[in-house]
């Protein structure tokens, strides 16, 4: 039994969901999103609760059960609120700034990095060493944050690089004489 799949998804005030076949469409104040589930699960909407149940006992049906419920939960959350990832930049001379729809990163490379922010995501730089990635699609927000972080991952000796706000970097000890 899927512990996640068993839990119903509650619809908050202002969010509505409609089901047509295997496609569920969620409308809210922030966004309208749709998701098409596989034929291995059954989706039902009753009394403001969305429930997902597997069709059969196959391994694939059980896998899709929890995953489908989580995707629907993220759709409902994204229609009502935005997802947010915070990044911090550490290193001498490392900084970031927004110029229109392009994020300009100075990361100690021989050139500046121009990162084009995709549609559906907003990136802000409240300080030159902080970045906030926001959007209604959890997967897209996480992917954009990971792509920005990949330009200069934190290194284990001094900790320089781009890291998530709550990320802990294990510091290695350097050479000893």
Automatic annotation (TrEMBL):
Cited Gene3D superfamilies: Ribosomal protein L6, alpha-beta domain (3.90.930.12)
Keyword Ribonucleoprotein: yes
Biological process according to GO: cytoplasmic translation
Transmembrane segments: none
Pfam families the record matches: Ribosomal_L6
Gene Ontology molecular-function annotations: rRNA binding; structural constituent of ribosome
Cellular component GO terms, alphabetical: cytosolic large ribosomal subunit
Alphabetized NCBIfam families for the sequence: L6_bact
PANTHER family found in the cross-reference section: 60S/50S RIBOSOMAL PROTEIN L6/L9 (PTHR11655), LARGE RIBOSOMAL SUBUNIT PROTEIN UL6M (PTHR11655:SF14)
Function in brief: This protein binds to the 23S rRNA, and is important in its secondary structure. It is located near the subunit interface in the base of the L7/L12 stalk, and near the tRNA binding site of the peptidyltransferase center.
Subunit structure, as described in the record: Part of the 50S ribosomal subunit.
Name by which UniProt lists this protein: Large ribosomal subunit protein uL6
């Amino acid at each position: 039994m899927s512990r996640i799949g068993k839990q119903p998804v509650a619809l908050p005030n202002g969010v509505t969901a409609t089901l047509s076949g295997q496609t569920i469409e969620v409308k809210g104040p922030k966004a309208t999103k749709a998701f098409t589930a596989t034929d291995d699960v059954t989706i039902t909407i009753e009394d403001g609760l969305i429930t997902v149940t597997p069709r059969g006992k196959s391994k694939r049906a059980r896998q899709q059960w929890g995953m489908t419920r989580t995707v629907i939960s993220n759709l409902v959350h994204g229609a009502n609120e935005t997802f947010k990832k915070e990044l911090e930049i550490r290193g001498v001379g490392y900084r970031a700034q927004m110029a229109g729809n392009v994020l300009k990163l100075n990361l100690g490379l021989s050139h500046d990095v121009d990162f084009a922010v995709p549609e559906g995501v907003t990136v802000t730089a409240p300080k030159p060493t902080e970045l906030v990635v926001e959007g209604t699609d959890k997967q897209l927000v996480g992917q954009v944050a990971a792509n920005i972080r990949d330009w200069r991952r934190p290194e284990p000796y001094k900790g320089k690089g781009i890291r998530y706000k709550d990320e802990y970097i294990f510091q290695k000890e350097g050479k000893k004489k």
